Amino acid sequence: MSLNKLNQLYLAVVMDHANHPHHKSSLPDATKSVELHNVSCGDDIRVFIKTKADRIEEISFTGNGCTISQASASMMTDALKDLTIPVAIKTCDDFFQLTMGKTLTSKAKKALGDAAILGSLAEFPARIKCATLAWHAAKEAVGGEIK
Amino acid sequence: MSLNKLNQLYLAVVMDHANHPHHKSSLPDATKSVELHNVSCGDDIRVFIKTKADRIEEISFTGNGCTISQASASMMTDALKDLTIPVAIKTCDDFFQLTMGKTLTSKAKKALGDAAILGSLAEFPARIKCATLAWHAAKEAVGGEIK
Amino acid sequence: MDKKFENVIKDFPILSQKINDEPLLYLDNAATSQTPNPVLNEMVSFYQSENANVHRGVYTLANEATTAYENVREQVAEFIHAPNAKSIVYTRSTTESLNLVASSFGDLVVHESDEILITIMEHHSNLIPWQQLAKRKHAKLKYVELADDQTLDIADFKRKLTERTKIVAVTQMSNVLGVTNPIKEITRLAHQQHAYVVVDAAQSVAHQSIDVQDLDVDFLAFSGHKMLGPTGIGVLFGKAELLDEMNPVQFGGEMIEAVSRTQAKWQSAPWKFEAGTQNIGGVIGLGAAITYISKLKMTWIEATEHKLLTYLLPQLVQIKGLTIYGPQTVAEHGSIVAFNLANLHPHDVATGLDMLGVEVRAGHHCAQPLMTTLGVESTVRASLSFYNSLADMDRFVYDVKMVKEFFNRES
Amino acid sequence: MDKKFENVIKDFPILSQKINDEPLLYLDNAATSQTPNPVLNEMVSFYQSENANVHRGVYTLANEATTAYENVREQVAEFIHAPNAKSIVYTRSTTESLNLVASSFGDLVVHESDEILITIMEHHSNLIPWQQLAKRKHAKLKYVELADDQTLDIADFKRKLTERTKIVAVTQMSNVLGVTNPIKEITRLAHQQHAYVVVDAAQSVAHQSIDVQDLDVDFLAFSGHKMLGPTGIGVLFGKAELLDEMNPVQFGGEMIEAVSRTQAKWQSAPWKFEAGTQNIGGVIGLGAAITYISKLKMTWIEATEHKLLTYLLPQLVQIKGLTIYGPQTVAEHGSIVAFNLANLHPHDVATGLDMLGVEVRAGHHCAQPLMTTLGVESTVRASLSFYNSLADMDRFVYDVKMVKEFFNRES
Ligand SMILES: Cc1ncc(COP(=O)(O)O)c(C=O)c1O
Ligand SMILES: Cc1ncc(COP(=O)(O)O)c(C=O)c1O
User: Fold this and answer.
1) Which end of chain A is more exposed for a tag (fewer CB within 10 A), N or C?
2) NIF system FeS cluster assembly NifU N-terminal domain: which residues (chains A, B) (predicted)?
3) Cα distance from B8 to chain C (closest Cα, Å)?
4) Is the peptide bond before D270 cis (omega within 30 degrees of 0)?
């Protein structure tokens, strides 16, 4: 295989998020933050959320990682901001399904925003962990059961 | 193979020693006694010796075991009694060689007495441990290095 | 014999070899089972096409190896009806599994003057770890005795189980007496006293189907090599919330989440217990063994072995001077038969049988306190498998008689 | 390539497969080596003709298995030039070997305010066990740092080695920096201070010949799976008199001499450390791997790998934006090369290489404190073996450049 296949994963929008991540900062007044490690490479992501009533008012992340983990974290913050907690949990679960190659409803895809593009991860199974790290942290932060 | 081959091992003289072991008792005035276990079956043999100057004045054994271990222990006491310690150690070593199928000099064989007959053990490798237990205990008792 | 049996036999080439010029009759299945070709093939094929270290690389080969390794965990969970794969820890053996519980979990829950209740029929591997724990903690180790029929004395269990009992460790099937213990009832009673139940399934796992949720056991241990798998791979099942509480006992490799110069943080269970490179090939073999058993069907294995025992036991009972340990009736007996011949030492008997190509164990079977209770040093033991035939049973009985005659003639 | 090389390649069918439609180029030999057919055949043949549990039966099959198992112990002793087989303990892995030393021997000799001296380049498996021991004993864990050229700073070692140092634990070859440490000198200095020396030979054992008596090390650990053997088998060498002093850490099975209801007596070393059924098939595979290496000759392996590195390293050094960790010169470098490409994350690089069929590691390589010292989170790592060719090196360099271009174009 040539490197062409890489284009399926490293799309312009992915590179864009990785190089200019959204909401990459800590939240001093976060109601909760969760840090997770990718044990095989040592990358870590910390996700901060500020909830009010049942809604995620603000969400952000810090940490180091590869293109995929940074882009995915950035996309995650876009997708989950302003969602109610149950919907956020559902959205995380949809993302996990997507990375495992499941086809989502167009509604679910829409809710994922840019992250919907990461369906191509199913072709790169070794990188799924990189992509889901931030989403697992987010899900844990809003109190969804881990994995 | 029929059971005929067993006759090579369970010779009349072996059965005789096993059924009527020589020096099977404890020695109240022993100068040293050593107990060894056959870990796979749980059999144990304790060898007692009484030395004077450099000579084994008395030697005996107690303990349970199979035909081979009992017969061999009995033969051992016959062989080692009255030997000097260096000669006793040498005799033990000769016996170990014999059970591993080595051919001994006729002098060495003679020193082993009835035990010389156990050369057939080389054909029954799984039973060598049974036969050597008492001799290892004896060697340890006279201060020869173990194994 | 039926077609299925004939096909099975072909998978075990070792069984068609000669020992001392006689066809091998392997009756030491309780020590280790033989490994069928499909299991060996699966392992070889793993080494020849997917071999890489697991949980380490992002490349394709490593990912395939990791997936294969984790899939077997799911398979093991299903095999013993565990709620999920997270409750399955890979170890070297039953022995290591039981040691892990005793040293990690035992240290958490057993304190001074607490009690640990085990049975007198335990294998050393489910005995010494508790003896050591009791010593370390100044706790009391108590033994449930045998009833008159040499099954476990449940009344004695009830008497000895107290509110001080923190752990009950018991074998599901004795490797000497052949009895299966009533684990479900034991667990129910133990839980009433808030004691945890650790089950040694080394002997049962290949002979009956196990449902850890139905039994409600807290921990259960077994080995691959006694269930058609390779050596060097074992399993510890533990309830997820208990595994979570436990500290690892070995450190290094992929069991960590993060390490600095001064401290380290562990991964979650089960991975925190799997320090260093595991027996990946062994895991693959274990998975293949489960697949093999599932294809045969455990019910068929049970029925086949029961038929063998039903045929064998009454014949043995009739041999004059032969004493059988454990219950004398087929109903309570699994496919393990320990016995002695009057005035003959088990080693001599085993050597005689070996000359006839029949491979049985002679010894204390790593159960010395049980031997003492039975009043013997050691016994002969024949342990059956589904790959034995009725003709094998006839031959075995005949050969035992031959050996008896040989030695009686001599003495 | 020469005839010998061509024959060698045939023994490793895994190497001729395709990964992502490209011929596999396996460069993760430091994580695990591939297993040649002769080793697999030997294991299969064991299971198909000699399989029985060891040290247990008096029958022929069990005796053959036991003999095979113990013969490999002699073979291992000879391989590392140990004085005799009694100083060879079978374990699961390097990790288990090191944990055994740290928990059993460590507990005997390290006391409050004593010092344990390790190096900053240790793998977690030779780091966390000592960190834990230091915690348990309120001892001090000290690290020897790197010199400017990223080899071990021997001056720092001399400074930090004191009369309080009880244990020096050091890797013979770093799994990241590729450097070989001067074990003989370290041991000489440590012994002057009456400290014991524990050597992690996981990376060195397959690449250079080891003489434990010449090095005079007290303990040395390695794994079968990094030296062409199967997973699940490792070795701990220990000086006989030290092994004798140590207590076992796992209990049960054949490691005992006698057991009663209240106490147990252990066998002598090395058997007292081998509780339960060991990885017998793995031991057979380890023996076959040693035979395979001996036939190839370690000097040939060394020369072949040195030639590859001599060819590769200067080419890598010339790639703009590529940083190599560890010494930059071939003279001080073993066949492991860790590197990063400027502004690229190792995971992305490894995925790119994987698309081209090149399998390398990306990560912290279980050496996080070293990563911190190097100022990175992780690196790419290519590790060579004698079954790689000069053409492989060319391809690797080419592919690294391709990947670099791909990502530079994108960003
Ligand atoms: C230097 C070093 N030490 C120890 C280990 C651990 O070896 P294992 O995983 O076989 O226990 C490794 C391998 O990853 C290593 O490279
Ligand atoms: C009842 C029982 N428990 C534990 C064991 C130990 O199993 P392993 O040697 O595989 O650790 C055995 C096997 O000998 C056994 O029969």
Assistant:
1) C
2) 10-130
3) 12
4) yes
The pLDDT of residue B1: 58
| Residue appearing with tokens 């969602």 | A83
- Considering the entire predicted model, what is its pTM? 0.94
C91 ligand 2 Cβ < 6 A: no
C180 C-beta closer than 6 A to ligand 2 = no
CA distance D245 to D241: 7
Residue range D370-382: mean pLDDT, rounded: 95
ipTM of the complex: 0.93
Nearest by Cα to C269 from C52, C100, C71, C32: C100
Does B40 contact D67 at a Cβ distance shorter than 8 Å? no
Q: Render the burial of B13-49: b for 16+ CB within 10 Å, e for the rest.
A: ebebbbeebbbeeebeebeebbbbbbbbbbbbbbbbb
Give the model confidence (pLDDT) of C62-121 as tens digits: 888 899 999 999 999 999 999 999 999 999 999 999 999 999 999 999 999 999 999 999
Range of the domain at A51: 21-141
| pLDDT over threshold 50, residue B147 | no
C377 and B19 within 8 Å at the Cβ level: the answer is no
Position D75 pLDDT exceeds 90:
yes
C258 touching A, CB under 8 A?
yes
Tokens found for residue D315: 């080419």
Output the six-digit token pair for D234: 């490792």
CB contact under 8 A, D47 and C40: yes
Using an 8 Å Cβ cutoff, are A45 and A134 in contact? yes
- Which band of pLDDT confidence, cut at 50, 70 and 90, is reported for residue C411? very low
Residues contacting ligand 1 via CB (< 6 Å): C 253, 276-277; D 30, 93-95, 123, 125-126, 171, 175, 200, 202-203, 223, 225, 366
Averaged pLDDT, C30-58: 90
Residue ranges per domain, chain C?
3-30+297-403, 41-295
B and A make contact (3+ CB pairs below 8 Å): no
Q: Does C335 lie at the interface with B, CB-CB under 8 angstroms?
A: no
Three-state secondary-structure class, residue C394? helix
CATH architecture of D41-295: 3-Layer(aba) Sandwich (3.40)
User: Is the pLDDT at C218 greater than 60, yes or no?
Assistant: yes
pLDDT value at D1 more than 90:
no
Number of domains within chain A:
1
* Pocket flag, ligand 2, residue C125 (CB < 6 Å): yes
Q: For residue C350, give how far its alpha carbon lies from the nearest alpha carbon of chain A (Å).
A: 52
Q: Is D319 a catalytic residue?
A: no
Ligand nearest to the CA of D121: 1
Q: Whose CA is nearest to atom 7 of ligand 1?
A: D94
Alpha-helix runs per DSSP H in C275-389? 280-296, 298-317, 346-355, 368-374
Task: Decide if domain D3-30+297-403 falls under CATH 3.90.1150.10.
Answer: yes
CA distance, residue C44 to nearest chain D CA (Å): 6
More confident residue, D70 or D52: D70
State the pLDDT at residue B9: 87
